[in-house]
Amino acid sequence: MALLIKNGRITTATDHYVADILCEGETIAAIGRGLAAPAGAEVIDATGKYVFPGFIDPHVHIYLPFMGTYSKDDYDSGSRAALVGGTTTLIEMCCPSRQEEPLSGYELWLSKAEGLSACDYSFHMAVTRFDDSAEKQLREIVKRGIASFKIFLAYKGAFGIDDYELYQTLRLAKELGVIVTAHCENAELVGAMQKRLLAEGKTGPEWHEPSRPVRVEAEGVHHLMTFAEQTGAHVYVVHTSNSDAVWAAAAARQRGVHVWIETVAPYLMLDETYAAKPDFEGAKYVMSPPLRCKRHQDALWNALASRMISTVATDHAPFDYQGQKEMGRGDFTKIPNGIPSIEDRVNLVYTYGVQRGRIDLHTFVDACSTQAAKLFGLFPRKGTIALGSDADLVVYDPQYRGTISQKTQTMNVDYSAFEGWPIEGRPSAVTVRGAVMVREAKFVGQLGYGKLLKREPTHV
Ligand code: URP
Ligand code: ZN
Ligand code: ZN
User: Among 235, 420, 457, 459, which one is least packed by beta carbons within 10 Å?
Assistant: First the structure.
């Protein structure tokens, strides 16, 4: 059935105008004033509302075996939460262990999404071991449409790789034209500092940040930059939490390194004082790299406004407080790392970014949708509103006023890191390839509608 969205304030990374959008089949068929509705078409009146391109979250964990447990969402709750919050495409980190074969890992991750996801999805393929067999399988995975890798310079003994593997991964990525997303922290330093703090009796969640300070992350970025410079690979620093790390990447960019920077919603909204909440409540706010002080938060907003930071993702990694975060009582190194926010990212960045005057509307759309589409081989199918693009649209109500609460959230986790936070706007309708998936914050779509997005290497 056709869909006509009338009189919306169409807002992309570059444009802002009032018009109607006609969606036919899965794509945008016409954009103009006074478009007539074809017979049988549904009409949505978007007068006074924004119409944004579907938002893209390029850093998500849905299925994640990690730190002795599993993240809580599956593609049922996770994709519904994404859509309710305006995210129509997610890119999940496919993270098999060092012992697993990359191809069977990829097939396992894919099997969790196929037939269940309501939103469109793709994967970044984690390289957690590099040898001849892994290389062969990685080439095959890229051929199957997964045109990006993920590496961890942290999590020694779990997902982390050594410098030889880092070099080989970047060399392969350069050859294949795929981009490498990277978690940058110096694993040796983190391990040593964790040991020292625990030996001093510093066991609570407030010691997570001192165990992985700003410079340890900046060193990780600098390290990656050196390898990217030597290989010519294109790299993307995930979940950048502080100004020193941003500058390490920016300095490399000036030397000609092909690097892009991601930050995530928790760093823009929360600071280190949350992890120091009494009675172990701080565990809800433990993620890696850790939440930082206000000075770094301000610097991240400024780097986003100046477009030094390309994207705002979530690093959605949901672990319950009860039974999961609690595993780290008496030892902060055992608190499963992660903060859930796939449902809240768009409303938070709109409210605390656009509404507070920190960024403009175009930067908001660019950072939360368009840049991810461009970097990861989805543009212009996704990430913009144009003839022929997928009809992934968010009709956004800037008059809405409400608050975030665990009680009303779709994410399958027993707390919200943003409990009681006011929001000033929310999606009133969300479409994926022309199908209405959300109306007034209620999921009305179909599980299993989401498609795997095959992506071509774009960094050749
Ligand atoms: O704390 C985090 N970030 N948890 C998820 C795993 C990762 O490092 O992205
Ligand atoms: Zn990470
Ligand atoms: Zn992550």
Answer: 420
